[in-house]
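ok so dumb question maybe but i'm new to this and my supervisor (M.) told me to 'just get the structure for Amino acid racemase' and walked off. so i did the thing. is this what she meant?? sequence i used:
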Amino acid sequence: MAVLKLYRQKLQHNYNHLNKVFKEHDISWGIVTKLLCGHELYLKEVLALGLKEVHDSRVTNLKTIKTMAPDVQTVYIKPAPKKSIPDIIQYADVSFQTELDIINMLSEEAVRQDKLHKIIIMIEMGDLREGVMGEELVDFYEKVFELPGISVIGLGANFNCLHGVMPTQDKLIQLCLYKQIIEAKFNREIPWVSGGTSVTIPLLFNHILPKGVNHFRVGEALFFGLNLFTNETFEGMQDDVFELETEIIELTEKPMVPSGILAENPSGESFEIDESLYGKKSHRAIIDVGLLDINPKFLIPKDDNISVIGASSDMLVVELGVNSDNYKVGDVLRFNLRYMGALSVLNSRYINKEVV
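this is what came out, is it supposed to look like this??
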């Protein structure tokens, strides 16, 4: 069976690197754990890093975190479904919100549970996923400020999540101006401007992050060290906190061109014949993961001589060329992962999880 490994020292290294930078700039931050899909083995490693704020998009994961570490501040990071409101109040200290009706329900539930629930109101900044429109923000805040059991601790925004809109200095200045408008209008302090995610970190490293942005939520940069502007690894960070180990279950020299009438495969893909490959052969290996576990485009072979050809539901085919490394059936092939690939693997119950 394939195995996903998390390397403890590499995770600690990336955490130390980020924590040092955030401390130097007086920025609060939390770790986004939704990638880990609630796996206690990996959550334990994250909680051991020492940070006291954890973000997730699943209430069940926050419940697990609260059970493991009651003193950690838990943050629910998407608009709340009605049916989840009692659990959100119970297991999330903070939540991101965009709908007045939902915030009213959170208020009622917070009063019932005798709790003060903190919220960050998300603002639409161009990516067109969640967020209150800027022109509606003052009226929105005016209604929220009146609610019992609710404390507004920040405003925030997401970038690059749907349409790929990137954060810029101008957009983040605008986010900070919204905070100033709300504070001046209502004579209320808004402690956090949560404009930072992994995609915003390059602005911090390049010294162009507006000083008003004082809170980050970080997952991808911590686990993959990835600069989302350049798709390169940040200097001083590790890109292989996670590693997928797979086993070769077939290895045969085969023609490089399929034979027969071609139609769409079960994934809806159609292939065209490359006539220059007629008569040529190559060693192909099948490994013990498939589309049920991961999309091949999110796999990065650690051996540069290997290329991923494609996959069916539970098997994946890789090209070995002349097989200069003399791989054989039963040998292990290792892969780094992109974020969405790791998310799929972590959500697969068919792949073992280990800590190294």
